[in-house]
Amino acid sequence: MTDTTNMMAKELLGFYQEELYEEARRAKKEGKLVCWSASVAPSELCVTMDIAMIYPETHAAGIGARKGALDMLEVADEKGYNLDTCSYARVNLGYMELLKEEALTGKTPEKLEKTPAARIPLPDLLITCNNICNTLLKWYENLAVELNIPLIIIDVPFNHTMPIPQYAKDYIAEQFKDAITQLEEICGKKFDYDKFLKVQEQTQRSVAQWNRVASLSSHKPSPLNCFDLFNYMALIVCARSKDYAEITFKKFADELEENLKNGIYAFKGSEQKRVTWEGIAVWPHLGHTFKGLKNLGNIMTGSAYPGLWNLSYTPGDMSSMAEAYTRIYINTCLDNKVKVLSDIISGGKCDGVVYHQNRSCKLMSFLNVETADMLQKENGLPYVSFDGDQTDPRNFAPAQFDTRVQALDEMMKQKEGVSNE
Amino acid sequence: MSRIESIISELSSISNNPKKAMEDYKKETGKGSVGVMPYYAPEEIIHAAGFLPVGIWGGQKSISKARAYLPPFACSIMQSVMEMQLEGVYDDLEAVLFPVPCDTLKCLSQKWKGTSPVIVFTHPQNRKLEAANKFLAEEYRLVREKLEKILSVQISDEALNNSIEIYNENRKVMREFTDIAANYPNIIDPIKRHAIIKARFFMEKSKHTAMVKELNSELIALPVEAFTGKKVVLTGIMAEPNEVLDILKDNGFAVVADDLAQESRLFRNDVPSGTDPLYRLAKWWQEFDGCSLAVDTKKSRGPMLMDMVKVYKADAVVVCMMKFCDPEEFDYPIYYRQFEEAGIKSLFIEIDLETTSFEQTKTRVQSFSEML
After folding, report:
1. Which pLDDT belongs to residue A420?
2. Cis preceding-peptide flag for B241 (omega within 30 of 0)
3. I need a surface site. Which of A256, A262, B19, B290 has the fewest CB within 10 A?
4. pLDDT tens for residues A294-303?
5. Which ranges form a coiled coil (chain A) (predicted)?
6. Which residues contact A77 (CB under 8 A, 6 or more apart)?
7. DSSP letters for A85-103
8. Which residues of chain A are within 8 Å of residue B135 when distances are taken between CB atoms?
9. What are phi and psi of A383, to 5 degrees?
10. A355-374: per-residue pLDDT in tens?
């Protein structure tokens, strides 16, 4: 066992990420079950059953960030996946095809051999949830049929009217029960409800530490650049039902608080303007987007995306857990979406907003015009939008991004003295 | 003009002029129309209120105003619907029923640019569970309540059950029609077939039923003709604009069956029997399969299409791929592989309501026709 007590948060992040992949590979070797899961599907169910988990979205983002997406996208393209569909899905479906080919032929395809991301095993079952998009339903349908394995679905209906009605929570809670029955069949053992409660409690502790980290960007100057949340997000996705996430986030929050006390801030030098980033990161160009803002003296102190995992609920209460998984802002009406973003912007004491018009994500793009308009009417802050993609490097133009954030910077500076405090 | 010709001509003219159909309905009944967005809204509820449900499927259009509100990668049908919203085309509707079975529709439901009130509801996607029926029946109850309020009417269970029967009768007659039409491809060419089906969206259903029923009996009285062209099954959202169907016709193709969201998907299943009409409507969604917008962990669409090819002795499947429709795009690699494995030929054509140049489609269809 590696001693983690003296590790810094950043080291813990790397260590636990690798540990999770290793656990899955080990499980596969030992003939235990491996599940591929959507990033905001309820992890509590499979973790209670001791199933090793892999999160394809995080894995695809990792491939993208390490500049390995094109190979996988090419495989998906050859299989007939349209370039217009989500690049996370295409990277993962491409990867799955290579794993399948390897399993069938015993030979490792070259593209799989040289892919820069962690090696993951093929799944024995799948779980998906559409609280962040319906693409996750279509993508997982395809995985299930191509691999001929069971697929557990948690369908959280789009909340066109807020607050969330009880009948919607009842429907979701019924699906938790059905998922448990399916898991009992797949695993050939009873579901342990005492353990489930403990896993739920663990999840709540992880979420609480995650929220603690996120709240630190409200300080001005800020000890946290929200770009860091894009990195730490890996553990709220992949390990929130284990103590890995809690330990790492607690350490990170402690470090940031210590820095704050000592006057050490995220921005070396002095932060000029603070922005909210609406949308997913541009993984293959993460460095460019980070530097583009940094070179102008700007820091990201608002991002709604990491807030997707603010899954606080009452352990033991299925209806409360159902609500947590369905209330995610992109699964709600425009008014609520705007309200959530408005709180993010004011919480981060932001001076402007950057909207990622994401070619891969229709749900996080098609309301940007209206969202931006409503928010500007409310808070008067300038905004810009740029074209990008979460993992297809071809859909992002660095020069366009630079021009747009420069324009935002100028607008924010013109408003000098009219700060959003 | 023969009776067959005159029925087809009347239905074609209705399908080409929804505005007039709405005006005629108003003159006749004094009641207005309610818009029905794709896909799979329970329009029986509107019918039971005595109003005319009108299908909203966009139209052939160049996109300019909508560009300000939608990026170019939104599906072609919703680009065109958005353009028409901005032009005020739908403003005579008393309300618009708005289902959200895909991410694009979720967003669009929040940004209607016309003046009519919008009633949004969500289809459950874990469809095979009983809990899904309960959820959807509750959504429909709210749809009914909202419609009652907007239209100032009461919609009784009895009226609703009655409307369901009228719709089921129409579905049955439409299934008969598509089967009969497959035997008379020289009379019912792809464009006429489409117009006869499309007229459903702009007519009180029992009237449509009566006309199609008559058409059916006129057709079966004729001897089945020999057909020298090729027979195809269409799959996708829709096969518009008409130029696409023209190209199929010009190249000697007959549509012997379809799996289009605008056509047969709407009537291949009846609403099941029962007493609670809202529950019955909900149950229809549970029993419905083979559509990209209705989640199906078994992905039965490929096998269903292969069955259709067999039953209708078709030569191929024509994939009418709605541009930028991701649910349809996700289904494609799976059924394409299944077709390849089973030796079923297929042709992929892109459906773009904005396009005015069909040269590419023409070339593809021509060379496919030579290949068959």
Report:
1. 46
2. yes
3. A262
4. 999 999 999 9
5. none
6. A83, A90
7. S-HHHHHHHHHHHHHHHHH
8. 157, 167-168, 170-171
9. -150, 160
10. 999 999 999 999 999 999 99
**Cα R_g (chain B), whole angstroms:** 20
| CB-CB neighbors (< 8 A) of B126 in chain A | 153-155, 175, 178
**Percentage of residues in chain A having pLDDT higher than 70:** 99
Give B299's contacts in chain A (Cβ within 8 Å): 141-142, 144-145
Q: Which of A404, A395, A403, A418 is nearest to A83 (CA)?
A: A395
Let me know the angle formed at the C-alpha of B95 by B93 and B96, rounded to the nearest 5 degrees.
95
Tell me the C-alpha distance between A233 and A384, whole Å. Answer: 25
Nearest by CB to A333, from B110, B125, B333: name it: B110
| Rounded Cα distance, B371 and A94, in Å | 31
Considering only CB atoms, B297 lies closest to which of A81, A130, A144, namely A144
d(CA A107, CA A99): 10
Give the count of beta carbons closer than 10 Å to the beta carbon of residue B49. Answer: 25
Tokens for B24? 């005629």
Over 80: is that where the pLDDT of B35 sits? Answer: yes
* Model confidence band, residue B123 (pLDDT cutoffs 50, 70, 90): very high
Tokens for B332?
């494609």
Residue B34 β-bridge partners: B53, B95
Strand partners of residue A354: A277, A384
Q: Residue A124: what are its φ and ψ, rounded to 5°?
A: -100, -20
Buried b (16+ CB within 10 A) or exposed e, B294-324: bbbbebebbebbbebbeebebbbbbbbbbbb
Q: How do strand B230-236 and strand B316-322 relate by DSSP bridges?
A: parallel
Distance CA B288, CA B60 (A): 29
Taking the C-alpha atoms of residue A188 and residue A178, their distance in angstroms, rounded to an integer, is: 15
Which among B126, B298, B324 is the nearest to A84, CB-wise?
Answer: B324
Taking an 8 Å cut-off on Cβ atoms, the answer to whether A370 and B299 are in contact is: no
Whether residue A305 is predicted with pLDDT greater than 90 in this model: the reply is no
Measured between beta carbons, which residues in chain A are less than 8 angstroms from residue B73? 84, 359, 362, 365
In chain A, what residues touch B134 (CB-CB under 8 Å)? 167, 170-171
Residue A421: pLDDT over 50: no
Angle at A360 between CA A357 and CA A365, to 5 degrees: 35
| B350: closest CA of chain A, how far (Å) | 12
Which residue in chain A is spatially nearest to B100 when comparing CA positions? Answer: A158
| Confidence at A2, pLDDT banded by 50, 70, 90 | confident
B129/chain A closest Cα distance in angstroms? 8
Residue B186 reports pLDDT greater than 50:
yes
* Core vs surface per residue A180-210: b (16+ CB within 10 A) or e: bebbeebbeeebeeeebebbbebbbbbbebb
Instruction: Say which of A82, A158, A359 has its CB closest to residue B122.
Output: A158
Cβ distance A171 to B298 less than 8 Å, yes or no, reads no
Identify which of B69, B110, B332 has the shortest CB distance to residue A334: B110
Class of domain B28-158: alpha beta
Tens of pLDDT along A51-109? 999 999 999 999 999 999 999 999 999 999 999 999 999 999 999 999 999 999 999 99
Contacts of B337 in chain A (CB under 8 A): 79-80
